[in-house]
Amino acid sequence: MNKLKILLEILIVSTRLGFTSFGGPVAHLGYFHTEYVRRRKWLDEKSYADLVALCQFLPGPASSQVGIGIGVMRAGVIGGIVSFLGFTLPSVIALIIFALLLNSFGFTDAGWIHGLKIVAVVVVAHAILGMAKNLTPDVKRKTIALFAIVVTLLWQTAFTQVGVILLAGFVGFLLYKHQTVEDSSDEVKFPLSHRFAVVCLTLFFGLLIALPIMREATNLNWVALFDSFYRAGSLVFGGGHVVLPLLEREFVPAGWLTEEQFLAGYGAAQAVPGPLFTFAAYIGAVINGWQGGLLATVAIFLPAFLLILGTLPFWNSLRRNRNVKGALMGVNAAVVGILIAALYHPIWTSSILSAVDFAFAAILFSMLVFWKLPPWVIVLTGALGGFLLSLL
């Protein structure tokens, strides 16, 4: 009964966060710190900082992985699942409903949809500014980011981002392998065995290899969908905004959905709280109804689950490895470059079509960055402004 009470408490707290956590991954981590560390004291400052560091190191949605990790520390694997469901389902349901309405009424050419596309420009530009400041502070990492921009724009294939990330990790290892690593005698305790962790990691890599083979062998749409979303969730470093170019190149050129549908959904995703990875639920629902939305959600978040459960028991030794940290510094710099490339294409090229569009984007950017208005206000203003502009 005590365990059930703990799980219920995790569900209530995480669901409340799922309904109220606007602002992206960094803001989510702030909400988590306030709720879990300061208010409820489920873990201390050091343990929280270590958990955040681990999730920043792993590919996938960092804020969701932190929430899963806290649930695991509180009540084991089931606690992690409950924490994930509470934080994620509100935005999943909202975006699936939006996709179904989009399909039913076919208003992708409406003015307010164009307004949402301009919102996408503003949100990604804001994300780039924050990430570039933290992840490319020196000339070496700025150069890695520049390399990522050039390669990503000139060779637009499904494997370009993966190759850029791997090469950047190797360069980062070479450049920063002699950096000093802060040590700590305190270790974070996780209620998971090493054997269970190895099983999770084996399953993660096994699916990454097996799904493309199954896709070619079966030629089934749902296998192809699962493979695309699973691969996107497995290879994205840097949080939800970075998944944009991967998903765009997986689904738009292949004809699964139009660029207008894609960017409209991305704009709408800014209006809902919770992790931006739930944008996958929108894409899945546009392609194959609510069933596709649920399938996409499971597929894109499954790698995050397997990775966090597979690495938690090993984190105490991993976080002290200077080679790993050096590679990660290179990867994070490349992520900034990939984001800048995505800001230009497809976002800018399909959204800023006139001087009026640019002026409106400047107003929305000022509202978000300088006036510090909530993201949902930016989204509503973008939709309304797009509608009014279409009447001119």
Automatic annotation (TrEMBL):
Keywords from the UniProt entry: Cell membrane, Membrane, Transmembrane, Transmembrane helix
Transmembrane portions of the chain: 6-32, 77-100, 112-132, 144-176, 196-217, 267-287, 294-315, 327-345, 376-391
Membership in a protein family: Belongs to the chromate ion transporter (CHR) (TC 2.A.51) family.
Top-rank taxon, per record: Bacteria
Localization annotation: Cell membrane
Entry's Gene Ontology molecular function annotations: chromate transmembrane transporter activity
GO cellular component, one term: plasma membrane
Any Pfam family: Chromate_transp
Statement: the UniProt record of this protein carries the keyword Transmembrane helix: yes
Membrane topology value: Multi-pass membrane protein
Organism name: Halalkalibacter krulwichiae
Protein name: Putative chromate transport protein
Lineage per the UniProt record: Bacteria, Bacillati, Bacillota, Bacilli, Bacillales
